[in-house]
Amino acid sequence: MGEQYDWLTELLDLPNVRVIHFQLVGSQRLNVVVESILEAALCPGCQQPSLIVHDQGAAQMIRDLPIWNRRCWLTYRPRRFDCATCNNTFVERVAWREPGLDYTVRYEHAIYEKVRRESVAQVAQDERLSEDIIQGIFERWAKKRSPNAAIPV
């Protein structure tokens, strides 16, 4: 499954995922459906690998870097695993996204770098996101870089 989109999986270049479908939405948006290719996930409770997939969560839309000059959104359904060692049920973690955020790590980093050169208002307009979202992304990344980093307004 997904072999017909190997070229897009390579272009997307995210670790341990494959593209299973995509859709061009108008002239400015690309929706890409991805799934994990890992057979196991590490239990956060006991740090043991689990091969037992319990179920899949609801589809989540995650903003990523543009492709073909189009805003790119990934659709991803995180898997839940059962741990045979500690009987914990947990959601798999992926390297390309921080839990609970609607953006890939690389997209947030690109926003941070862009705000270092341009105003929050300009980046928000370019990305078609609110200034509050752009400011929040910048502040999260600034804290990661330096606890005393200046926050532009």
Report on the structure:
The chain has 153 residues and is α+β, with helices and mostly antiparallel strands. It is 28% helix and 31% strand. It has four helices and nine strands; from the N terminus they run H-E-E-E-E-E-E-E-E-E-H-H-H. Helix 2 packs across helix 4 (131-145) and helix 3 crosses helix 4 (131-145). The model has no long low-confidence stretch (mean pLDDT 91).
Give the SSE layout.
Layout: H1 6-12, E1 17-25, E2 29-36, E3 41-42, E4 49-50, E5 52-56, E6 60-67, E7 70-76, E8 79-82, E9 89-91, H2 105-117, H3 120-127, H4 131-145
Parallel strand pairs: 2-7
Antiparallel strand pairs: 1-2, 3-4, 5-8, 6-7, 8-9
Helix pairs in contact: 2-4, 3-4
Put the structure in a nutshell.
The chain is α+β, with helices and mostly antiparallel strands. The protein has helices at 6-12, 105-117, 120-127, 131-145; strands spanning 17-25, 29-36, 41-42, 49-50, 52-56, 60-67, 70-76, 79-82, 89-91.
